[in-house]
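tool=predict chain=A
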Amino acid sequence: MDFNLHHFPYPGRRVPVIAERGIVASSHPLASQAGMQILQSGGNAVDAAIATAAALTVLEPTSNGLGGDGFALIWAGDTLYGINGSGAAPAGLSAEALAAAGYQEMPMYGWWPVTVPGVVRLWGNMHARFGRLPLAQILAPAIGYAEEGAPVPPMVAYFWARGVAAAHTRRGPEFEGFLPTFSIDGRAPRPGERFVSPGHARTLRLIARHGTDVFYQGEIAEAIDRFARATGGLLRATDLVSHRSEWVKPISIHYRGYTVHEIPPNGQGIAALMALGILDHVDLNRWPRESAASFHWQIEAMKLAFADAFAYVADPAKVAVPVKEMLNRERLAARRQLIGERAQTYGPAALPQGGTVYFATADRDGMMVSMIQSTYMGFGSGVVVPEYGIALHNRGCGFVLDPDHPNRVAPGKRPFHTIIPGFLSKNGLPIGPFGVMGAHMQPQGHVQVIVNTLDYGLHPQAALDAPRWRWERDGTLRLELETPRHVIEGLTARGHQVVVESELGGFGRGQVIWRLASGSYVAGTEPRCDGLAIGW
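tool=predict ok
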C-alpha cells in the first residue's frame, strides 16, 4: 500500500502496530488479548475472531452481547467470504399487530423491537467452516472473564453508567432482569472496578459444552421462550430453531485502483460503496485532507448514498433490492454531477430498469477476519433473560411501518441493519479488514478511513486518529472538537448546519489491519475508546 509509516500528522496519538505472525485489534484490551491467546495457542484468525467476539460480550456489554447480531468478512485462501448473522422478526411481529397496539412507528425498547439474535449461530457457522481449535478452548478466555471478573475501563464505564441510568426509568416485568444482571447494587461499575457475570458464564459454558445449537434449540432457547411468554414477548422457541446464518457473496466497488468490499443488504454497507463510487469521479487530492472543500465533497457524496440506501435497502430474501443498479458506475457518475459548492438536500435517484463493536484479526498464514457484532443502542432492548446474562437486542427498530416501503416490518423478515464489516483488496490480493462502528456513522466512517488511506496516504493509526464528521438525517453536520477552525467556518459558509460535537462516542470506533508487501501486518486501533491492537 502507498502510505508513509513515518508520517504522524496528529501529535500525541498512538503509533501503528507492526507484526508478522498475527494481529488482533478490538475496542477492549482484554478482548484483544483473548484473541491473541488463541492465535498463540495454534488457532487461526477465525478462532481468534470468535474468541475476541465472545470476550467482548462479557467485557463490553454496553455495545454487544449474546442476544445481538453479527456479520463477518473472511479472507481464506484466495477468496473473500461473507456471512450475514442477522436475525429475522418473530412470527408474531407484524405491522398489523403494532397498529393494534397503538404504535405508529417502531418502538425502541421492550419486546416489540426484539428480533431473533443471530450472533451465536454466526460463531458456530464460522467455526464449522474455518475453525481449527475446539470451540471450548476458544471460549475459555471469555468464560474466565465472566466467572472471575475483569476491571472495567473508562470508556466502557461511561457508557455503562448511561445504560444503568436509563434502566432505572423503565417499568414492566420484561425489564426486571436488567439491573440484577448489569449493575452492582443498582449502579454501574466504576472505572477499574471488577465486574463478575455469572449468568453470562453459565450461558458460555453451555455453548462450549453443547455447541452453538444449544442457544437455538436447547436449554437456552427454552429459557428465552419461557421468559418471553411470561412477560409479554413475541419471541418463541420456533423462531429460534428456524434461524440460520447466510453465507453471502460480498459486494464491492473500485476506488483509486483498489477494491472495497462490504456485506450486501440487509446491511447498509452499500451506502459506503455508493459514496466511494461517487467520490471516485472527484480528485480529492487537489485539496488538503483537513480542508472545507475535501470534507464538503465527502459529506455530499455520503448524503447522496444515504438517500438511496434509506429508500431501497431491505431484506433481499423478502423483496428485490437493486444492488447492481445502485452500484452502477454510470449512475454514480451522474449522481456526482448533482454536487455543487453548497450543501444540498437529496432524494433517492430513479433506478435503471433491469451500539456495536468492530474487531479484526489476521494470522501468519494470511487468513484475515473483519467482524462486527451489536445489541444496538447500548444494551439493546433493555430486556434481559434472567440468570443467563442475555441482553436482547432491538434491531427491529430498524423496520418501518410505511406500507409502501420495502423495509416494512413483517414476520420472518430481517430489518435494515446498520452494522457492517469492511475489507480492502487490490488486483485480487488481500490488503485487509477495516471497520468503524456506530449506527449510521458506520458507512461514513468507512468512507473517511478509505479516503484517509487511499487519497491522503495515512497509515492505519493516522487514518483512525484524523478528525471525523457525521451527517445526521435531520440535516445536521456534526464535527469533532479537534476539527480545525478553518474547516468549521468553511463548511458553515457552504450552507452546512454545523454543530461542533463534544459527546463521547458519537464518531464511531474503528480498527484497521493492512497486509504489507513484505507479508507483515500493520494495524491501528481507535483512539476514541479503550481499544488495543496487539501483534505477535
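The mean pLDDT is 95. The chain has one domain: 1-468+508-536.
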